Amino acid sequence: MTKFRYDGPLASVTIADAGDVVLNPGGEVDLPADADYVRTLVALGHLTPIASAEHKPAKKKD
Predict the structure, then answer these.
(1) What SS3 string covers 8-62?
(2) What is the pLDDT of residue 37?
(3) What 3-state class would DSSP assign to 1?
(4) pLDDT band at residue 51 using 50, 70 and 90 as cut-offs
(5) Which residue has the higher pLDDT, 52 or 35?
(6) Cα–Cα distance measured from residue 38 to residue 36, given in angstroms and rounded to the nearest whole number
(7) What pTM was estimated for this model as a whole?
(8) How many CB atoms lie within 10 A of CB 38?
(9) 19 phi, psi to nearest 5 deg
(10) Are 13 and 40 in contact (CB under 8 A)?
(11) Any idea where the domains of the chain sit in the sequence?
(12) pLDDT of residue 52
């Protein structure tokens, strides 16, 4: 599962491996990144993957 930020219209969907999901504008949701509908929402710009703290680059010290 991948954490996404949703920026589309309010929606309720059923996604394989995730079940029934309510998509709230501005909300965060865990979804399977390889699901067809999830890929469609990403392509439309409605879903944006959220980088986890593990993947953020370290801050430079001056």
Answers:
(1) CCCEEEEECCCEEEEECCCCEEEECCCCHHHHHHHHHCCEEECCCHHHCCCCCCC
(2) 93
(3) coil
(4) confident
(5) 35
(6) 5
(7) 0.75
(8) 24
(9) 80, -150
(10) no
(11) 2-52
(12) 61
- Compute the residue count for the chain: 62
To which residue do tokens 């929606």 refer? 11
CB atoms within 10 A of CB 19: 8
Long-range Cβ contact pairs of 45-54 (< 8 A, separation 24 or more): 45/7, 46/6, 46/7, 46/8, 47/4, 47/5, 47/6, 47/7, 47/8, 48/4, 48/5, 48/7, 49/2, 49/3, 49/4, 50/3, 50/4, 50/5, 52/3
CA angle 35, 40, 41 (to 5 degrees): 100
Q: Are 44 and 7 in contact (CB under 8 A)?
A: no
